Every structure is written in structure tokens, then in C-alpha cells.
């Protein structure tokens, strides 16, 4: 490492120690400081690790965390970004704050879709793992195929890297690439002939532009798709869900390739995330029993079904950022047999996406048959959320502009559990307040 790079890494490491040790912060600023000193500092880590890049709209953080648990069974040094800080400065922070591995390590990097091309410039990955693509932050990403094009720009810089992709998402099968392909998906249901659901992304056949159909649909536009007008269809699966034994708000019992696993987070969408992690682990020769052990260690995942005890009440923090994310979370929450209250915290800073119109596509109305006794909307854009709930027919919705004050209001809820469905910035604000009160460790990190 050059003198300039060593100095940049040292300053970044020092700033991380101060920010993390004193303020419970530091997921991106240390990397930004290091990059200001040496814009190409990432080049100097390319020989220290094998690299895997995890990309997609939803599920990156959970899939990465579960993959790390599995690959820790084989590798001594697995580096990743647990807070989901997935742009260039966040990636740089990971490296400048980490000790030098004793031998070649493994870095599993959750990377923002638009930043994949900027990261692949510095080191070539062994594999890409792609979870899904849905409409998200339209003010930043534009439409779905524009996002896919940005991701492809990075993929084309690493033609030798294996693409491990969700076969149930039609968009990942739209382009011919030289990369080796590995496909994962669901194969647990009988096949029929279903039309694409309304308000679904990417449902046009890339070959003939006919509307695609499905043998079955898991959620949104994901499932066993085929074109009734030509021969385009879902590719053959290398790794698959062969059975879903049970799914609750806290876990799912499933079979991947006929081997049973308990996944420590609830919802069908998290079965996909676990399957992505499983597929990567199997690709990297981790045996099934080791993966089973890893999944059962129940990692606490930053802001993803994170449970916090506040007095005699439990707050469950679930981060969302788009319509499909909200709808899948609502489907999961509604399986809870116990009484619960519901809060929706909405922010619209650049990290969230500054356009909040997506909340009008969310199916909040499906909560109305759940006899939920307490609703609250909050955070900086609480007015937008309150208007959405008002037009959805909700009455007596409480308002709290300050996410930190939600902690105090836990005492007024009439149930033992509150689901706090939160956008990214409000999640960080809420976690900082919880950490300040010693209710969790780490705060914004």
C-alpha cells in the first residue's frame, strides 16, 4: 500500500474509532474521509479478499447477513456491511475499519444498484447475487429497466463472475451474458396458468413483448413465469424451495432442495433472502448441515424485524422503502395471532427517495380487517402518511413527528406489541434514540 493510501486508511480508521466508540456512528463518514485523501484507496484491498457483490431492490441486507452466517462456517475472515451502508463511502468504511486478514479473506458486499459499476472498477467479484428488482426511488433510479441497465454495466466489467440470480424475477432473464449463471427459486406449488397481477413490474416478455403468464405466483411479479406466445420461460433451477412447512411473523420452516431449514425471520419475502444466501453458500461449497446450523444462530439484522423490549412492551422494527416491500410486510404482520398496534414512519431524504407518492400504491387498507386498536404515523413526512391513511378510511390515527418520541408513546399503546414499519432515515433516527436510552447496542450502526 502506498504512503498516500496508508495515510488515508489510518485517518479513516481513527475517525471510525472515534465515531463508533463515542457516538455509536460511523458507517460511511470514515470511508468518505479516506476517499477524499485517496480516491482510489479501494484498489489496495483487491488482493486481500475474494469478493461477492449482493444487489437488488429488496432483501440485500438480510440476504447478506444470512450468507455471512453460512460462510462463517467455512471462512475465518468474512467481511461485510451489517448496517446496509452500501454506497462507495460505506464500502470504503468497511475496509479501512477492518483489521488486516491473516490470510486471504472473503468480503460479501451489499452494494446499491447504481453503485455496482463503481465498486467493480476496483475489484472483480467471484460472484454476483441478485435478489429482485421492483420499482424503488423513482426520482433516483427511474424505471425498472433503467435500474437493470445500471446493474448490467457493472456485470459486464466482470464477465468471469458467476451470477447467482432469482429465477422467479423475469427481468434477470432478459439479457444474454457471457457470465456463468446459477438460478434459484420456488418449486413448491402445482402449476396452473395465471395472468400477471395488476400493478406488477416487468411483465412483458423480452422476446415477443407479449404479457407473460405464471404457473404460480409467490408475491408481486415473482413466480414460475412463462410466455404463452413464444418459448420464453423461467430457467431451470439450480437451487430451489421444495416445501414451505410453516411461516409466521418470527420464522419460517422450509425445505431447500428437500433439506429442512428454520429461517430466523418471518415472511415469504425472507424465504427468498434465505434461499439467496443458501445458494451462495452451496456455490462456495458449504455443506447443508453447516448452513442449517448457521441459520439457527438467529442473527439480529439491522432494522429487519429487529425486536426491542421497552418496559413491558415489544417494538418490532421493520424497514421498508417501496410499495412491494410494504405489502409483503403487511402480509407477514397479519399472520400474528396476538393483538398488536401499528406505526408507519415516513421520511423522504435522499437516502429514502424524495418522492413519497409510492405510499398510495401500498395496500394499507388490508389491515382494516385485523381489529388493530392503535395506529400511528410519524417522522418528518408524517403529513403525507396521515393523508394516505385518512383517504384509506382509517380513523383516530395518532401523529408523532419525532421518531425518538415513539419510545415514550409505547406506554400508551393498548397491546403488548407494536410493529414499527419505517423508512431508512426514520429507522436510523429511531435506533439512535433507542441506543441513547441503552435499549439497544449500536444505535445508527
Automatic annotation (TrEMBL):
Record text on subunit structure and interactions: Forms a heterodimer with GatD.
Superkingdom as given in the UniProt entry:
Bacteria
**Protein name, per record:** Lipid II isoglutaminyl synthase (glutamine-hydrolyzing) subunit MurT
Cite the InterPro entries for this sequence. Lipid_II_synth_MurT, Mur-like_cat_sf, Mur_ligase_cen, MurT_C
> Which residues does the annotation say bind Zn(2+)?
205, 208, 227, 230
The Lipid II isoglutaminyl synthase (glutamine-hydrolyzing) subunit MurT C-terminal domain sits at 319-427
Provenance organism: Limosilactobacillus equigenerosi DSM 18793 = JCM 14505
Gene3D superfamilies, from UniProt? Answer: Mur-like, catalytic domain
Tell whether Phosphoprotein is among the UniProt keywords: no
Amino acid at each position: 500500500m502506498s504512503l498516500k493510501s496508508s495515510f488515508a486508511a489510518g485517518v479513516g480508521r481513527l475517525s471510525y474509532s472515534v465515531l463508533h466508540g463515542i457516538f455509536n456512528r460511523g458507517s460511511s463518514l470514515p470511508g468518505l474521509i479516506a476517499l477524499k485523501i485517496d480516491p482510489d484507496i479501494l484498489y489496495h484491498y483487491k488482493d486481500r479478499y475474494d469478493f461477492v457483490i449482493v444487489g437488488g431492490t429488496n432483501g440485500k441486507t438480510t440476504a447478506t447477513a444470512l450468507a455471512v452466517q453460512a460462510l462463517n462456517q467455512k471462512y475465518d475472515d468474512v467481511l461485510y456491511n451489517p448496517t446496509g451502508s452500501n454506497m462507495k463511502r460505506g464500502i470504503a468504511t468497511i475496509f479501512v475499519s477492518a483489521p488486516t486478514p491473516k490470510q486471504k479473506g472473503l468480503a460479501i458486499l451489499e452494494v446499491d444498484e447504481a453503485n455496482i459499476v463503481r465498486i467493480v472498477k476496483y475489484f472483480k467479484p467471484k460472484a454476483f447475487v441478485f435478489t429482485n428488482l421492483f420499482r424503488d426511488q423513482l426520482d433516483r433510479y427511474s424505471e425498472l429497466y433503467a435500474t437493470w441497465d445500471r446493474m448490467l454495466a457493472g456485470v459486464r466489467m466482470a464477465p468471469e463472475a458467476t451470477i447467482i440470480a432469482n429465477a422467479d424475477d423475469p427481468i434477470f432473464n432478459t439479457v444474454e451474458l457471457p457470465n456463468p449463471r446459477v438460478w434459484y427459486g420456488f418449486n413448491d406449488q402445482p402449476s396452473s396458468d395465471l395472468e400477471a397481477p395488476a400493478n406488477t413490474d416487468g411483465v412483458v416478455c423480452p422476446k415477443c413483448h407479449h404479457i407473460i403468464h405464471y404457473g404460480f405466483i409467490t408475491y408481486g411479479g415473482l413466480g414460475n413465469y412463462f410466455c404463452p406466445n413464444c418459448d420464453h420461460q423461467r430457467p431451470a433451477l439450480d437451487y430451489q424451495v421444495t416445501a414451505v412447512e410453516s411461516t409466521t411473523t418470527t420464522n419460517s420452516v422450509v425445505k431447500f432442495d428437500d433439506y429442512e431449514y428454520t429461517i430466523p425471520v418471518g415472511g415469504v419475502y425472507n424465504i427468498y433472502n434465505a434461499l439467496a444466501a443458501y445458494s451462495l453458500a452451496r456455490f462456495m461449497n458449504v455443506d447443508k448441515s453447516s448452513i442449517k446450523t448457521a441459520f439457527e444462530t438467529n442473527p439480529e439484522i439491522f432494522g429487519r424485524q429487529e425486536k426491542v423490549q421497552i418496559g413491558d412492551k415489544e417494538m418490532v422494527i421493520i424497514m421498508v422503502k417501496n410499495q412491494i416491500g410494504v405489502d409483503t410486510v403487511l402480509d407477514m404482520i397479519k399472520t400474528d395471532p396476538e393483538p398488536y398496534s401499528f406505526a408507519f414512519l415516513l421520511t423522504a431524504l435522499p437516502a429514502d427517495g424524495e418522492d413519497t407518492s409510492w405510499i398510495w400504491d401500498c395496500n394499507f387498507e388490508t389491515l382494516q380487517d385485523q381489529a388493530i386498536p392503535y395506529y400511528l404515523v410519524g417522522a418528518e413526512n408524517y403529513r403525507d402518511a396521515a393523508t394516505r391513511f385518512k383517504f384509506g378510511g382509517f380513523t383516530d390515527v395518532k401523529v408523532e413527528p419525532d421518531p425518538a418520541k415513539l419510545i415514550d408513546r409505547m406506554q400508551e399503546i393498548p397491546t403488548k406489541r407494536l410493529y414499527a414499519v419505517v423508512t431508512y432515515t426514520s429507522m436510523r433516527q429511531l435506533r439512535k434514540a433507542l441506543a441513547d436510552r441503552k435499549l439497544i447496542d449500536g444505535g445508527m450502526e
